Amino acid sequence: MTPIIGLPACAKEAGGHLFATTPSRYGKALIAAADALPVVIPPEGEAMLALLDRLDGLLLPGSPSNVEPARYGETADLTPGRHDPARDATVLPLVRGALARGLPLLAICRGVQELNVALGGTLHQQVQELPGRLDHRGGPGTTAEKYRPKHTVALEGGVAELIGRREITVNSLHEQAIDRPGQGLVVEARAPDGTIEAVRVAGSSFALGVQWHPEWDVLAFPDRAALFAAFGRAARAFGAGFRRAA
Q1: pTM of this prediction?
Q2: Is 136 an active-site residue?
Q3: What is the C-alpha separation between 60 and 41, in angstroms, rounded?
Q4: Which of 178, 150, 155, 177 has its CA nearest to residue 166?
Q5: Any catalytic annotation for residue 109?
Q6: What are the φ/ψ torsions at residue 188 (nearest 5 degrees)?
Q7: Is 151 labeled as catalytic in the residue annotation?
């Protein structure tokens, strides 16, 4: 059967109304490269945990917003007005619930930061301000120019095995990044400046996060397609096992 993947949305206000939104490219990538179907999860807090028992996987998408610093014990807020507390209140419990169930999980950009915070890790709020670090933001230009391949990442461990490469070139559209990895997270990719670019949850069948955007033009890049295809296989295997157990 086609696996069903939960896709948590952001809370966006427009015209006096609150909307649950996420870019359509994540769902399109799941359909095209993972042979899976997306289901958007509204940012309604812990009530959404009940959905996990009906899913075969969870994809945490990127977003212009940042995780609130208080969520990882930081009092200073270097990006005020750019947070989404409703998404935080929904996704952080979903991450812990998914991992407890062994649900396959793929985290992208903000998603990898959420994965890290959910497991007790901390974040750099402005990587470009750190000594010796690159500016990992998208920069000026059209959307396609912002998502162009920008720098290499060195891969190791499970991510390297999954993609079949030890080095790839990725796009880069983030200001925040992992500082201290959360409990159980294994670092499996770094940028040339040392910024953590991918992590895996130790002992999981499939739970990993990447700081770049593999969903963008997914079928044109073998490494991106391989990542989504592996996620789809893990979700199908989980769903088949869950249904047999039921």
Answers
A1: 0.97
A2: no
A3: 10
A4: 155
A5: yes
A6: -125, 5
A7: no
Among 87, 191, 86, 182, CA closest to 130: 191
φ, ψ at 34 (rounded to 5°)? -110, -5
Q: Residue 136: what residue type?
A: H
What would the two tokens of residue 43 be? 């940012």
The pLDDT tens digits along the chain (246 residues) read 899 999 999 999 999 999 999 999 999 999 999 999 999 999 999 999 999 999 999 999 999 999 999 999 999 999 999 999 999 999 999 999 999 999 999 999 999 999 999 999 999 999 999 999 999 999 999 999 999 999 999 999 999 999 999 999 999 999 999 999 999 999 999 999 999 999 999 999 999 999 999 999 999 999 999 999 999 999 999 999 865 554
Host H or E run for residue 91? helix 85-101
- Pairing type for strands 123-124 and 177-178 reads antiparallel
* Identified catalytic residue from 10, 68, 109, 174: 109
